[in-house]
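tool=predict chain=A
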Amino acid sequence: MVKNITKSIQKKKRQECSLLLRSKVPPLKIQKRLKISMKTINRVKNSLAKKRSVKKKKRSKGNSKLLKTHKLAINQLIKKNPFLSCVDIKNRLSLPVTPECVRLYLLGAGFTRKKLYPQFALNSDHIQARFIGAQKMKDFIFAPEIVFTDTSSIWLFDNNHQGWFHSNENNSLSVDKHSGKIHIWGAISMLYGKIAMCTFRSNLDSKLLLDILKEDLLPAAGYCYPEGWFLQMDNDSKNTSILIQNFVYNYVPNFIDWPSRAPDLNPIENVWKLLKQKVRKRLPSTLDELENVIHEEWANLHDDTIIEICESFPDRIEQCLEKQGGRLNY
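tool=predict ok
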């Protein structure tokens, strides 16, 4: 009988020791409180460690839980807003799976998570062409008469973070073919600031570009520079097409030979960045709203700000020469 009572007391002390260890009470305090040996405490501690090691981990819910209707709903949601995180997608659709499961489905379906505006890559040929181009423009004395032009796109719900886009460029949810964006063409100069801007939703081709040059660029540039001006365009395939080159040769007073892969030499890139920041703050919820906001924020841009950006052009040329054609800090 006494033996059984002793065993019961020892069992109770071991249980109390286990609770104290789980509560992270120091072993010396446990020894003093329960009046047991350190050997017993270590034995209980090792026993707890073994139980934890064999305890089954919760398994994450697999892709099998995503039904076909769930996958269609995910695709429709991304079509409206590709910048949602996997947590947002799960919560908005009340999906019975983990965000990791959503991520694995999207990757398996051919989507990639990437930034819209990655840095342009330069190879040795690009660097050499940039350096030669900068040498030609070094002593360009007509910088105030240069009309800088470029195209860009502003996306609906663009938060300047990564978005989900299909890796197949022919897919309707690829970066180039996604419907949730407005395209912009613009022209600026060091002397006047804003020259012209227009928006469109279809992909830009040489015919559309020709209409823009005829209807938007020539009247505005001719009004600002009645005695002549210089057109800057990059080496995009649309700009170098026979249709555009013939038009430029016949109707544009002067043309700058622009090097390939040189967006950092063009001040309008910084204007696009500024415009996108202002548009994001307005939080447009539809494409029509987005287009209206773009025009409003373009109108609100101060010409002095754009002129100041354009005045950095000579410094960009100098920096390009110093870096032997390398990437600039703009």
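The longest helix spans residues 2-22. Residues 2-51 form one domain.
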